[in-house]
Design goal:
235 residues; two-stranded antiparallel sheet; Sortase; Sortase_dom-sf; Class B sortase; hydrolase; SrtB
Length: 235
């Protein structure tokens, strides 16, 4: 009798383990699929002669694509989307508009590539340093010092120099609301606010008229209200 009970318990535990493993395996399979799709996109649009990105080709495949983002020294090399009528659409959709918990990096719906003083790109913080999880590395001062360039190709290849890294509570600082400065005073006030919340910062801060670019993701180690933000100024 006892033997039967033990066998039953073992079978029950094995069954529970199998049931618990199914979602995990599905998630891993989805991760591999998403990674492969992004690798294929990167390979298909990289110009062999100079390693630049053919954004025109991407726009032809999906009109929501407005650019391509690269952060040298990290795994960040992704198309960037924008949907003004459905701001967070690409939070859970891939480049081909299929559902994906990975999502695709996207520009704030309120930003204008040509006119905005601040461009904000959102992406998921995926464990293992995937997607914008790579921004976690900027919490290290040495990494910050050695990786100060961001490239964002739109109608041209824009180059930004990282000047600050923030780990910030969105209730304390609503940085995402700053898109356009009313004047120089308003611009400078925002920059000072950014520096107040910095983990690390560079000596040269943005000046009025220089466009900023912010890469924003969840700070998983601190909770739902926290964000890691890596910000650069156009050079």
């Amino acid at each position: 009798m006892k033997r039967m009970i033990k066998i039953t318990l073992i079978l029950l535990l094995v069954g529970m383990a199998v049931v618990a493993a199914v979602p995990f395996l599905k998630e891993k399979e989805a991760e591999k699929k998403s990674e492969k799709e992004f690798e294929n996109i990167q390979e298909s649009v990289t110009e062999k002669k100079d390693k630049t990105m053919n954004v025109t080709k991407l726009k032809g495949e999906n009109e929501d694509c407005i650019g391509y983002l690269e952060v040298p020294g990290t795994t960040i090399s992704y198309p960037v989307m924008q949907t003004k009528d459905n701001p967070d659409y690409y939070l859970n959709h891939d480049f081909n508009k299929n559902y994906s918990f990975y999502g695709t990096p996207y520009l704030s719906a309120y930003c204008n590539l040509k006119k905005s003083d601040n461009l904000i790109i959102y992406g998921h913080n995926i464990n293992g340093g995937k997607m914008f999880g790579a921004l976690e590395q900027y919490k290290n001062k040495d990494f910050f010092d050695r990786h100060r360039k961001i490239f964002f190709t739109t109608d041209r290849r824009r180059k930004y120099e990282v000047f600050v890294v923030m780990s910030v509570n969105i209730r304390d600082f609503e940085y995402w609301k700053f898109i356009m400065a009313r004047d120089e005073k308003y611009y400078d006030k925002f920059v000072e606010k950014v520096l107040e919340h910095s983990l690390w910062s560079a000596e040269k801060k943005p000046k009025y008229g220089e466009q900023m670019l912010m890469l924003s993701t969840c700070d998983n180690g601190k909770g739902d209200d926290w964000r890691i933000v890596v910000a650069g100024k156009e050079i």
